[in-house]
Amino acid sequence: MILQIINHKNQKMAVKITPVGKKVLIRPKKPESVFPGTNIIIPEASLQEVAQGYVVAVGTEVEEIKVGDLIKYADYVTPTEMVHDGEKHLLINVGDIFAIIGEME
């Protein structure tokens, strides 16, 4: 994954992010503000984050999880936050991932 940062001289730089070891970089899934089949809309300020996200990059020792997977991770995890293209991304340990979420066949 390529990340743009601004260095100490106010110059934009492109930096490649590759998680090391058993770490995964994810883009958190945004909580739903509208419930399907209803007219209920929850204000953005009241939404609670869901502990789910899309895998953007995987570490060198990660085997079961692939880029693009939707995963469920622990609610109590304390991730390292990073910003890419104005969006928050999280760096978490593989051990904090509970499941890969897929569509039912």
General form: globular
The helix/strand class is mainly beta
Distance between the termini: 31 Å
Please outline the major beta sheet: 6 strands, antiparallel
Written description of the protein model:
The chain contains no helices and eight strands. With 105 residues, the protein is mostly beta strands. It has a single domain, classed as GroES chaperonin (10 Kd Chaperonin, Protein Cpn10, Chain O). It has a six-stranded antiparallel beta sheet, with no helix packed on it. A two-stranded antiparallel ribbon has the order 1-2. The two termini are 31 Å apart. The mean pLDDT is 79.
Short description:
0% of the residues lie in helices and 42% in strands.
Q: What brief labels describe this structure?
A:
single chain; 105 residues; mainly beta; 8 strands
Indicate the topology.
Elements: E1 2-6, E2 12-16, E3 23-28, E4 52-58, E5 70-73, E6 80-84, E7 87-93, E8 97-101
